[in-house]
Amino acid sequence: VVVGWAAIATFLIETVTLLWIPAKEAAVPNLIPRARLEAANQLTLITTYGLTPVLAAVVAAVLDRSVRAIVGGDMPAWAEPAQLALWVNAFSRLATALVVAYGIKEISQGRADGQQRGEQSMFRQFIEGWRFIGHTPLVRGLVLGILGAFAGGGIVIGTAQFFATSLNAGDAAFFLLFGAIFVGLALGIGLGPMIVRDMSRRRWFGMSIVLASASVMTLAFAIHLSMAIVGAILVGAGAGMAFLSGTTLLGGEVADEVRGRVFAVVQIGTRLVLILAIALGGLLAGIGGSRTVDVAGAQISVSATRLLLLAAGVAGIFAGISAFGQMDDKKGVPVLADLWGSIRGRPLMPAEPFVSAGLFVVFEGGEGAGKSTQLAELAERLRGEGRDVVVTREPGATGIGTRIRSLVLDTSADDAPSPRAEALLYAADRAHHVATVVRPALVRGAVVISDRYVDSSLAYQGAGRTLPVDEVSWLSSWATGGLKPDLVVLLDVDPRTGLSRAAARNQAADRLEAESVAFHERVRYAFLDFAAADPKRYLVLDAARPADEIAERVARRVEELIDAAGGVDHPGPANGPDTPVQSELSPSELVTTERT
Hints:
The chain is an alpha/beta fold and about 600 residues long.
């Protein structure tokens, strides 16, 4: 009889829990600002899985001792530890219900408009939740990732006892590994957001699942308890970060009308998957045991437990990659570089989407490399073919750029900008230049030819001024919206030769030309390093070669790009009020642009 009543009570408790949890998770995003949703979930998870178990143990011990001290002698049935725990649970749930019903106005008052949704059966709402998940890539990726992670976790739990035995350890090792997972869980939930900082939460979710799954794979190869403990901590950390980011994304990205149903599907699905995975993992590990295989005369012990862990890790990695692919909101941005940049507080930015029908060509090089001459030659040739050509430069292609140019290059000013201020000024010029000149021309289908672009900042402010190149790169990428040229023509020249050419122009040297030879040497080799890192996008030419020969090679490469793109052959822009602002510099004006 007692067992029967316990079974009925357990069933009712679990049923109420399955109703309570989705309702609670669906309500939280409506009670706090979305920007604080992650912090709220973080606090909830740490409290639930970190503080509450410890506090429960302390309260249970204190109650037990207090009741024994009061009652003394034989303990009545109601004062047994299990009974006390049930009484505490019952009153705590009653207190929670009262707080929700009377203490949270947003919930207790119901719908503000007084309208109630039409009655639907529980089964139909569940099916609608599944249908919404199946038709929404973001939510589908989240749910599949969560279910995959719980399946892997179930395998780990189901095989944990056998795994501890395979390490020649007993129950103590099992409990140690179990505790290590919860330590990792707390670390992932508590420290994860601090580590990844502003990284896309969609990317973080998929990467967290991959981390946890890869750590499960390492458990399969652990030969010592210390290795297994490290792997278990990493498994917990990845699971904690995935749990936090997944819960936050579901709460923030799913509409209020279906959020509860989605959480219901997740709660039921995770429980089913977890139970099946634990049962299946323990069954297979018990049946498989350990076998000794003779391979080329060598006796190799093969454990079914380790094979299951390996399979669970591989399956989890595929689940994480699948979730990442469906949810990625920064397509084309390198994952590891984005992670490293986020850890350092500078996440990589995806390129701003726009349809380019033109071609973007940039001339780079040191002082006196002959960029202006070659740029003018190319522009004249393309215009002779009837193409729409926009000739521009940095800095100084716009009204704002002209003022910035005087600030950074004019030696007659009272004081020179500091290296960081100089980098920021160039970035400001570039942001305005790209927005008002380059992008509109590319959208129109023109060939944009620019005297200097991002690489000049990387070389002059990065290598020359010895600022961190990755910081300057991030700044320029943000300023340009990730816009990269189709071709960079690098005219390589010895700094002494180039400076001599610049001095022969009978013009006063600007701030950059007046720098030391060592400064310009650093700039030169920085340009060459950039070209070596991305040879397909660069055309490196010796600036000491005859100008006609250089012009011919440049024109040939540009024509190849135009042909590969299907031809960039558009009439010139019409003169009208809607014509985008463009920079048209004459060859005489370009003579003064032989600097960054």
